[in-house]
Amino acid sequence: MDVTLNAVLTLVGLAMLCFGGNWLVNGGVAIAKKLRISNLIIGMTVVAYGTSTPELAATIAAAGEHSEIILGNVIGSNIANIGMVIGIAAILVPLVVSRSTLRKEIPIMLGVSLLLIALSLDGELSRYDGIILIGSLIAFTIFTYRDVKKQRDENDEGTSDSKNNVYLKATGLIILGIALLGVGAYLTVENAVILAKEFGLSEKLIGLTVIAIGTSLPELITSIFAIRKGHTDIGVGNIIGSNIYNILMIMGVGATLGSVIIASDVFIDYVIMIAFSVSLLVALKMGLISRFMGVALAIAYAVFLTVSFLI
Can you tell me whether residue 37 is helix, strand or coil? Predict the structure, then answer.
């Protein structure tokens, strides 16, 4: 296929990501208001699941034969979500985040990252390890559901709202948003990979950089739209939720479909992933991710990409 056509299809995919991200945020906010639950929870559930769809699609496509792409995609996406997405978002608008994020959600994100490392120590993520990750995802989903139920009970004022069409419209926006994000990410990633191979990049490097950036574009677009609309908690919650789902759901599905071999140099990437997560934890202690911190995260991510290509 002509390289020019690949470039055009990549741009079409990016445009679909923009529209999909906007609709997904609008639908998520509408449901949050209707159900009387926080934007943070919506960001970590509906929006995070939606923006993780491209990673899941890429994992299913690469399962078995291209396991290096799966691992590189998960690690690279989690690094990109903090370095690229949070970094760029904070540069645009300083991010004020609730203390509850620091107390519960960030430690959970770090915990599942450490779980992935522990399961990798034997040099392989087996189908059994995949089942453990999926089981942990179920446990996390139950934990989140209880949080939602608690918030609804606390915020229930006994009001009745007959506007059931709000649910219909919001659900429609979410479905359309997720569909556009999925198709847009597929076009972007597939054509970006073709362009990248023109430069002779390895599968691991493609997964760690090109595909990771491509599948993180929904998070970037969605978070920027959410933050521009004043819904900071959705933007940050989306990133935290996506990082958790990337490990528990995406890596869990990938390992279950076909075992993933862990090369020794992957642990360096694990350390970098943990370092980005810890930096976010430090920033959130002040309840604010400043523009300065955003610049620092973006520069650190640029350095990571540069070093990855040079090694």
Answer: coil
The residue written with tokens 């677009």 in the block is 221
Question: At which residue do the structure tokens 């006994």 appear?
Answer: 158
Where are the extended beta strands (E) located within 46-153? 95-96, 124-125
C-alpha span between 191 and 171 (Å, rounded)? 30
Would you say the C-alpha torsion 238, 241, 243, 245 has a positive or negative sign? Answer: negative
Q: How many whole angstroms separate alpha carbon 160 and alpha carbon 258?
A: 49
Pick from 72, 44, 13, 34: nearest CA to 217: 13
Query: For the whole model, what pTM was predicted?
Result: 0.78
Tell me the per-residue pLDDT of 250-278, one tens digit each, with 9 for 90 and over.
899 888 888 888 888 899 999 999 999 98
Spatial separation of the C-alpha atoms in residues 17 and 9, rounded to whole Å: 12
* DSSP bridge pairs for 289: 95
Q: For domain 3-154+165-310, which CATH number applies: 3.30.70.120, 1.20.1420.30, 2.60.320.10, 3.40.50.450? A: 1.20.1420.30
Q: How far apart are CA 22 and CA 15, in angstroms?
A: 11
In DSSP terms, 95 is beta-bridged to: 289
- 188-207 residue pLDDT tens: 777 877 877 777 777 677 77
What's the rounded Cα separation, in Å, for the pair 302 and 74?
18
